[in-house]
Amino acid sequence: MFLFVLSILGIVGGVVLFAMGKWVGAKGGFRILPTVALVLGLVLLIFSSLVVIPAGHVGVPVIFGDVSETVYASGLHFKWPVAEVIKMSVQERAYTMGVTAKAGQVDPTDIITVLTREGMKVDLDITIQYRIQPEKTPWILNKKVWGNVDNFEYQYVRPEVRRAIRDVCARYSAQQLYSDKRAQIGEEIRELADTLLAKNGCACVLVNLRNVVLPEVVTAAIERKKEREQQSEEYEYKLDVETKEAERKRIEARGIRDYQITVSQGISPILIQWKGIEAAEKLAESPNSKIIIFGDSKIPVILGGQ
Predict the structure, then answer these.
(1) Angle formed by the axes of helices 32-48 and 2-20, to 10°?
(2) How far apart (Å, rounded) are the C-alpha atoms in residues 123 and 114?
(3) How far apart are CA 170 and CA 120, in angstroms?
(4) Phi, psi for 146 (deg, rounded to 5)
(5) Please, are residues 137 and 143 in contact by the beta-carbon 8 Å criterion?
(6) Is pLDDT at 203 greater than 90 in this prediction?
(7) How many CB atoms lie within 10 A of CB 258?
(8) Measured in whole angstroms, how far is the alpha carbon of residue 236 from the centre of its chain?
(9) Residue 16 phi, psi (nearest 5)
(10) Pairing of strands 290-294, 75-78
(11) pLDDT higher for 103 or 166?
């Protein structure tokens, strides 16, 4: 608006100087001062009609207090010279609530305490990522109190986010918050927060449930339960190993027994006699003196010499 006013003054001043016959230089010479005023006025008019929107922002034109429905994306744009363009960030922002010192987004006391399904108080460290929807920015300027993003966040984002967290956590027990259901709970908070924030022209992108602080007595009880579960799993593993080892030994014994039965069934008196004769033949070939006696037992008796 300031550039537009200067451009109008320059153009009007140049026209007036021409009309009054004012010039600088010799008589009949080039009228320098009026020309400079006109050129300067036109240049300022062109500049007042341009606007640059930074990356990650949108621009909303406001003409004499009337918010236009036009939304300028990032880049260079032409606008009405009299329009004031409000630049609004549509980048993702993180809003954090925590129990540790200086973890809160607004102040160190920005703690979120929820009641679980059994009525237990639990403190959470949680971060919500959200963004303003670009197409909703004219509506936000018209319907909401807007000073800057931080002001908008405190008035409209924070209450809805805390409501979503409390509503979802009330459906779960303290143990589920502390352990196996954390990812599921975070996704449910994101879905509910997205629905609630949509009424204010925002979208919830991500919920990170970073830490759950339970009363010390409850924490100790949960840790003891986990320890017992781990011991039970360890015992089951050992029992499974021993069972498999016993089965292995039974299979091995069964194999040895079957082998012995097979071998004993294949040994006959004739085979024993034949093996005895083969042994006697081999001994007879040695240079040592010996006496070999074949008796009724079919097995040669060897009386060894030296």
Answers:
(1) 160
(2) 6
(3) 9
(4) -125, 120
(5) no
(6) yes
(7) 10
(8) 34
(9) -65, -40
(10) unpaired
(11) 166
User: For 85-109, b where at least 16 C-beta lie within 10 A, e where not — what string?
Assistant: bbebbbeebebbbbbeeebbbeeee
The residue whose two tokens read 């929807």 is: 133
Give tens-digit pLDDT for 32-75.
666 666 677 677 777 777 888 999 999 999 888 888 888 999 89
> What is the model's pLDDT at position 257?
81
- Pairwise pLDDT comparison (6 vs 194), residue with the higher score: 194
Measured at the CA of 192, the angle between CA 189 and CA 195, to 5 degrees, comes to 145
Contact 36, 56 (CB under 8 A): no
> What per-residue confidence (pLDDT) applies to 22?
47
Give the C-alpha separation, 138 to 85, whole Å: 11
Residue predicted with more confidence, 104 or 3: 3
Q: Mean pLDDT lowest for which of 24-33, 51-60, 150-159?
A: 24-33
Query: Quick one: pLDDT at residue 25?
Result: 47
Contact yes or no for 204/227 (Cβ under 8 A): no
| Calpha distance 203→197 (Å, rounded) | 6
What is the rounded distance in angstroms from the CA atom of residue 3 to the CA atom of residue 48? 5
Q: In the chain, at which residue ranges do the beta strands (DSSP E only) sit?
A: 50-53, 57-63, 66-67, 75-78, 84-89, 93-97, 112-115, 121-132, 202-213, 290-294, 300-304
3-state DSSP percent of the chain in helix, strand and coil, to 5: 50, 20, 25
- Quick check: 120 and 84 in contact, CB under 8 A? no
Question: Distance (Å, rounded) from C-alpha 221 to C-alpha 133?
Answer: 45
